[in-house]
Design goal:
By secondary structure, the protein is of the alpha+beta class. The chain is built from 3 helices and 7 strands, in the order βααββββββα. It has a 4-stranded antiparallel sheet. It has a 3-stranded antiparallel sheet with strand order 5-6-7, with no helix packed on it. Strand 6 and strand 7 form a beta hairpin. The longest helix is centred in the first third of the chain and has 28 residues.
Length: about 160
Amino acid sequence: MKLNTHDRTPRPKNSKFIIGMFIFNAVLIYGIFGLVAFACIFYADSIAGGILIFLIPVIMTVIIMVFIKDIERAYVEINGDKIHTVDYYFGIKKEKDFSFFDITSADIYLGKSLKVKGHRESVSGIRYIVFRNGKKYLFKIIYLPETVEIFKQYINTAE
């Protein structure tokens, strides 16, 4: 069984309206930077300054998209009593294998808590179940009724 680390399984699709609004907003933001870059090139006679100003949203977009893709691709896979976790950090895949017997405790934290390691969503009260072996951090998964039900039979502290 494969579960998304940061979202419901299966992940819901965005509507065409939402995608359209993202594109519209991106065009507006890029347009603002484009106008400032044009003004810098045309009025200040600084081609390097204009290019540098336009690179700001491009670089920010790349960084944000890598972060979003890392969160979307992370998952936890359960095969019998084995747990296989896959996380991505700046596009680099990190895999770990655990057994249900390795888990000694599970705590529930808000996404903004520093006790939730790695990438996490920290808005609107999103919570994570953090699994530990003693004090050693093992892995995390989003707190949803489905995930609680799956891990409840093995862990008494997850409610």
